[in-house]
Specification:
By secondary structure, the protein is of the alpha/beta class. Helix content is about 25%, strand content about 25%. The protein contains seven helices and 17 strands. Strands 3, 4, 5, 8, 10, 11, 12, 13 and 15 form a nine-stranded mixed beta sheet that branches. Belongs to the DAMOX/DASOX family.
Length: about 375
């Protein structure tokens, strides 16, 4: 098996295949954990678990919701048992305004709906009381979720890959079939896994023109924050978003991620200083009870970053096809949800490869109840 690209999807898929056994895997990538190239999107993510309404996602039972439902227990267990993974349990508050129902946050309407499908999945889920909201907000919810330190987590996945016997090589390809001859064994690969993210829009043999970048700008500051706080909208323009969250583990939680933006078809890597000012103003407005600098002082800005989300109009593409007689399993188009869907998508890839005759019926297998029963069998 040859897996293309070293982002969170490629790393997780390769690791799941290796741990389940039966596959000789080589992963090739132009960029690997530790790199900071703009087109290498995984290191730039804020990274948390917040199920949202994406394209074709409106209720429990959709493909993307199933991927999320399979990934959350995996990340939750890492937070409890593997501190070296960089995954931490964090409380969450979502604040909603009625006037945002048709705003730019339409992509997150399920997240801010009155009856989200995930309310029975996330620990301690409840509605916020009126005294827990400011006058600006009409409703809200709180629950426990996870946050991910992406630098730590990507290196953790890479380390686990190597421990599992996966060969990792740096390489570039111009066509998906270029990868077929790059397996460490020097034998032709029996299957290729396409986790190329944004590259899928121009990679030969794929060239999916529905894939495009959505820019997100962040501030990383030193300080403390109650948990992950996000709102249904802002009054600062159609592409501005508002969220803050901690980054770190245990006593090392001294960094805050402040966002953000959702700018479609924008791959500009330069920092928009006016946007940064608006982001900081919105964060400070939360008040010292929820967010403050070190020892209660002012926030210390450590860096400004701008990253890209690999969005696909029709949502995640996860399917198998033959390209010039070579089996290719596609796993791309995750948008801003690559981390929180990564494990579920990897399980779906495994199913397509491990059960080729019944690959068309993998969807029924992905039902979490079926998956748990299969694990016990």
């Amino acid at each position: 098996i040859l897996c293309c690209r070293g982002g969170v999807s490629g790393l997780t898929t390769s690791l799941v295949l290796a741990q389940k056994g039966g596959f000789d895997i080589t992963l090739i990538a132009q960029h690997l954990p530790g790199d900071t190239a703009p087109e290498y999107t995984s290191p730039w993510a804020g990274a948390n678990f917040l199920p949202s309404k994406r394209v074709r996602v409106s209720a429990q039972g959709s493909k993307e919701s199933e991927y999320d439902m399979l990934t959350f227990p995996y990340l939750w267990e890492l937070a409890q048992t593997a501190p070296e993974a960089g995954v931490q349990v964090t409380p969450v508050m979502l604040w909603n305004r009625k006037k945002d129902v048709d705003s730019h946050r339409h992509w997150a309407t399920e997240l801010h709906s009155d009856r989200p499908w995930f309310k029975d999945m996330l620990p301690e889920f409840r509605d916020l009381r009126r005294d827990e909201l400011t006058d600006e907000y009409d409703s809200g919810v709180t629950f426990k979720s996870v946050g991910i330190d992406v630098d730590v987590y990507l290196l953790y996945l890479l380390r686990k890959l190597k421990e599992s016997g996966v060969v990792v090589k740096r390489a570039t390809i111009g066509h998906i079939l270029d990868a077929a001859t790059m397996h460490e064994s020097q034998r032709p690969a029996e299957a290729l896994i396409n986790c190329t993210g944004l590259l899928a829009s121009k990679l030969g043999g794929v060239q999916d023109t529905s894939v495009y970048p959505v820019r997100g700008q962040l501030i990383v500051a030193r300080g403390s924050v109650w948990g992950l706080i996000t709102t249904s909208g802002t009054d600062d323009g159609p592409t501005d978003t508002m969220y803050v969250m901690p980054r770190g583990k245990g006593d090392l939680v001294d960094e805050i991620v402040i966002g953000g933006s959702y700018q479609k078809h924008d791959a500009n890597g330069e920092i928009d200083s006016a946007l940064s000012e608006r982001m900081m103003k919105r964060a400070i407005a939360l008040g010292p009870d929820l967010l403050s600098g070190k020892d209660g002082g002012e926030l210390e800005v450590l860096r400004h970053t701008a990253g890209l989300r690999p969005v696909r109009d029709a949502g995640i593409r996860l399917e198998k096809e033959s390209v010039s007689g070579v089996t290719v399993v596609h796993n791309y188009g995750h948008g801003g949800y690559g981390y929180q869907s990564s494990y579920g998508c990897a399980l779906a890839v495994h199913k397509l490869l491990a059960d080729p005759e019944n690959g068309r019926s993998w969807w029924s297998w992905l039902n979490p109840l079926n998956y748990l029963l299969a694990k016990r069998a």
